[in-house]
Specification:
The structure holds three protein chains of three kinds. Chain A is an all-alpha fold. Helices cover 66% and strands 1% of the residues of chain A. The longest helix of chain A has 36 residues. Chain B has three helices and no strands. Chain C is mainly alpha-helical. Chain C has one domain: Up-down Bundle (Four Helix Bundle (Hemerythrin (Met), subunit A)), CATH 1.20.120. The radius of gyration of chain C is 20 Å and the shape is elongated. The chains are: A mainly alpha, B mainly alpha, C mainly alpha. Chains in contact: A-B, A-C, B-C.
Chain lengths: 536, 97, 206
């Protein structure tokens, strides 16, 4: 397979029409939309990091330090809403799914380019509404990102607006999901059979199904809370015979699978990176591909493990605990296969692979502590403590977040045609890794000792742990700044990247960097699997 | 991927009219049955009749009978998801102490 | 313009792709209603007597009429697609018009039905309702939420069909290019399917 030359098209970054910002925000090119998402999502990520930084800083002394208790409540709510709904849920599917999925399957665009653009606009509208809760009277929501009834029905803060923001973001997510499923079914290039799909595509495909089937349930649940607040229909209000535990059911029916919306595409990216830098085909292609579907399916059956102490039935607790253990199986299959792929490979310790190592290490800790929390009896001790906070940060930030960083460093030269400074990127990784563990590992210990989450204050015996964790947050922030700074610098001053910077075998590496406007001069015919490195 | 379409020929008007007659008849049936007190049966009979009606609408009006198998597979996935969610939610509701 | 047509590799309009997209969207609508359906079943299980008492206050007659109206509108939209495929533009426009009018009839009935309940103080938050047993409060809460959400979908479906009528008039949707009317029809049928389930939920329990 030779390079598909760019020819006369020019690349997608080149000025189009009159140019300017309008040629971006109204572009239906999947690559430009991917970049739009990247800019918006990374900006909001930095906002979320800042909020988290100040939450930690508040805890540097006991009692009120830099903010009052209800400010702290608003802060952790907004940190959660931004980091989950605006950053980690959309980030990998929307940025890399959009940019790469069509190229990887040999298509010129997604199935519905205009819906794709609409999806970005919904995202921006949702982001706008979420930020708006800060600026208008009554103040931002103070319920936590979960908006649990009945408190969310009663509090006077801007919960209705925050809920609307999440519903609008849900639309965005659904449209992206519909687009990806249809694209994978209909627009694969000739010869691109299901068993030749890159594993990233498999992961995004599985994710898209969760986005389609689960998001509407969250949407209607939040609409019910809005109706409850505006009209008082009574469904979640115990005073009127309603049942707030049902809110938790409908909330987690979406929000637990949402964890897999975050982690699956990140896992997909790791499955791309590992074989390329081990210079050998992936170990157990089918196992990794099907385990994506398996995680999506079994992951939809475990939502009740968030509710073990809510007062729901013991029978349900047993089921949900069992399924929680089951979902570890497909996740472990992936980890074993990555490690198996490294075995006897000719490893090249390039930056993306190092990020992938960090992902595997941190995700394994996150996953294993998830099993501890999934055990019914232990959960009673650990529920709503720092242990839970540490666990989900290891999964969401250590897993999905580091997976995103790995993907960013892997595909950056493809997306922008420039290379970043790999030394600085490695230093940034070191800072991120040390900072992350210093920040979150002590929380496991504190949580086990009984430190509850979402408090702006703590007992004297937790002081040391809190201080270590706060120092960790500084190192982590330094790492984030260095990483982002290095990438932004590379955008303008970086060396030119090659078409196939890493020697990958998937289709996106067969087109020039950055890719031409239409991706391919003519639709390629695929003759090999995605990790077939030896070519004649 | 092949983009060839099965040019599905226009469906006869008469088929739609028959389906509509069946739907109206089922509506009459469900109203008639609802007046009779049959205990447990009157709890599920409206649901069964509604499902029969929905099946007719999906199969004929929505052309699923004439479409490729992939559509049936998709519908199966959606229905299976619903079934599992109901089962798990009721594992709580039915055993609450 | 970067339309789906061009993307499908200059070969053909990808009708199957468009319909897959539509069906996936219909699933999201289905799951949107699935949530309240589940809640309804739980509260009905817990407060069955209250639900039966409250349900008997709704007019079975109006509910049945509305069911038949919506079923008939489904028939007319299904016929309109066949008519267009056979090249009968006039009949297509007529049938689409009939569908939209029937949608409007449904909404007018719904309006009077709601109005009658609101006049008697049977709406969420009303004193008269709050003094009743808990199951009845929940029944009417769900009734207004679910039929309200459904009515919004009827309005959305009517708007979609109105746009498609316009397309047919301007020959943008034609005998050889009819996927838009098929997808619009699919949406309308889904609104019908949801009503098929809503009807026994609220009107047939006694």
């Amino acid at each position: 397979m030779s390079d598909y030359a760019a020819g006369a098209q020019g690349n997608y970054l080149q000025k189009e029409g009159r140019g300017g910002i309008l040629s971006w925000i109204f572009s239906t090119d999947h690559k430009r939309i991917g970049i739009l998402y990247l800019v918006a999502i990374l900006s909001l990520f930095l906002v979320g990091v800042t909020l988290g930084f100040f939450m930690r800083l508040e805890l540097i002394t006991r009692g009120p330090t830099i903010m009052a208790a209800n400010t702290y409540n608003s802060l952790f709510t907004l940190h959660g809403v931004i980091m989950l709904f605006l950053f980690i849920i959309p980030v990998t599917p929307s940025v890399f799914g959009n940019f790469l999925l069509p190229i990887m399957i040999g298509a010129k665009d997604v199935a519905f380019p205009r819906l794709n653009l609409l999806s970005w606009w919904f995202y921006m509208a949702g982001a706008f509404l979420a930020i708006l809760t800060l600026l208008i009277a009554n103040g931002p929501a103070d319920t936590g990102w979960t908006f649990y009834a009945p408190y969310s029905i009663r509090t006077g803060t801007n919960v209705t607006l925050a809920l609307s923001a999440v519903v609008v973001l849900g639309f965005s997510s659904i449209l992206t999901g519909i687009n990806f499923v249809t694209t994978v079914h209909r627009l694969r290039a000739p010869g691109m059979t299901w068993m030749r799909l890159p594993l990233f595509v498999w992961a995004v495909y599985a994710t898209a199904w969760i986005q389609i089937l689960a998001t509407p349930i969250l949407g209607v649940n939040l609409m019910l809370v809005v109706a409850e607040r505006l009209l008082g229909i009574g469904i979640f209000d115990p005073a009127k015979g309603g049942d707030p535990i049902l809110y938790q059911h409908l909330f987690w029916i979406y929000s637990h699978p949402a964890v897999y919306i975050m982690i699956l595409p990140a896992m997909g990216a790791i499955s791309e990176i590992v074989p390329v830098f081990a210079r050998r085909t992936i170990f157990g292609y089918k196992a990794v591909a099907y385990s994506s579907i398996g995680i999506a399916a079994v992951g939809s059956l475990v939502w009740g493990h968030h509710m073990f102490v809510s007062g729901f039935s013991y029978t349900a607790g047993v089921y949900f605990s069992l399924f929680t253990f089951f979902v570890a199986i497909p996740s472990a299959i992936k980890v074993y296969n990555w490690v198996g792929s490294l075995y006897k490979g000719s490893l090249e310790a390039a930056t993306p692979l190092l990020y992938a190592f960090a992902f595997i290490f941190l995700f394994s800790i996150g996953g294993l502590t998830g099993l501890i929390l999934g055990a019914l009896s232990l959960n009673i001790h650990l529920h709503d403590t720092y242990f839970v906070v540490a666990h989900f940060h290891y999964v969401k930030f250590g897993g999905a977040g580091f997976g995103f960083f790995a993907a960013l460093h892997y595909w950056f030269p493809k997306m922008f045609g420039r290379m970043y400074n790999t030394k600085l990127a490695n230093v940034a990784l070191l800072l991120l890794f040390i900072g992350f563990n210093t920040l979150f590992f002590p929380l496991f210990v504190l949580g086990f000792q009984g430190m509850p989450r979402r408090y702006y204050d703590y007992l004297p015996q937790f002081t040391n742990g809190q201080l270590i964790s706060i120092v960790g947050s500084w190192i982590l922030v330094a790492g984030v700044i260095l990483m982002v700074g290095n990438l932004i610098h590379a955008l303008f001053k970086g060396k030119k990247a090659q078409a196939n910077q890493w020697g990958g075998a998937t289709l996106e590496w067969q087109v020039p960097s950055p890719p031409p406007k239409e991706n391919f001069e003519e639709i390629p015919e695929v003759k090999y699997g995605p990790y077939h490195f030896k070519r004649d | 991927m092949d983009y060839t379409e099965k040019a599905h020929r226009p469906i006869k008007y008469s088929i739609f009219v028959y389906v509509w007659l069946a739907l109206v008849a089922l509506t009459w049936l469900t109203v008639a049955v609802s007046g009779m007190h049959m205990g447990r049966l009157s709890l599920i009979s409206p649901f069964i009749i509604a499902s029969a009606k929905a099946f007719l609408v999906v199969a004929f009006f929505m052309h699923i009978k004439y479409e490729a198998g992939i559509f049936r597979l998709f519908i199966g996935v959606a229905l299976a998801t619903m079934f599992v969610v109901v089962w798990l939610v009721y594992s709580d509701i039915a055993f609450r102490s | 313009m970067n339309e789906t047509a061009e993307i499908a590799a200059n070969k053909h309009k990808d009708y199957t792709g468009a319909k897959i997209g539509m069906w996936l969207f219909l699933f999201t609508e289905l799951f949107l209603f699935f949530g309240p359906f589940l809640l309804y079943s739980i509260f009905r299980y817990r407060y069955s007597t209250d639900f039966i008492n409250a349900g008997s206050e709704l007019s079975l007659f109006v509910g049945s009429i509305n069911t038949v109206v919506l079923l008939t509108s489904s028939l007319s939209v299904a016929l309109s697609i066949s008519a267009l495929q056979k090249g009968n533009k006039k009949l297509t426009l007529l049938l689409l018009g009939v569908t939209i009018v029937l949608g409007a009839v449904f909404l007018v009935n719904k309006y009077f039905e709601w109005d009658a309940k609101i006049v008697h103080g049977l709406y969420p938050g009303a004193e008269a309702l709050l003094s009743r047993p808990k199951g009845e409060i929940l029944f009417f809460g769900l009734y207004f939420f679910m039929t309200g959400l459904h009515a919004l979908h009827v309005i959305a479906g009517m708007s979609v069909l109105a746009v498609i009528t316009f397309f047919v008039m301007r020959d943008k949707v034609t005998q050889s290019d009819y996927v838009k009317i098929e997808n619009g029809g699919l949406y309308w049928h889904l609104v019908d399917v949801i009503w098929i389930y809503l009807f026994p939920l609220f009107y047939l329990i006694r």
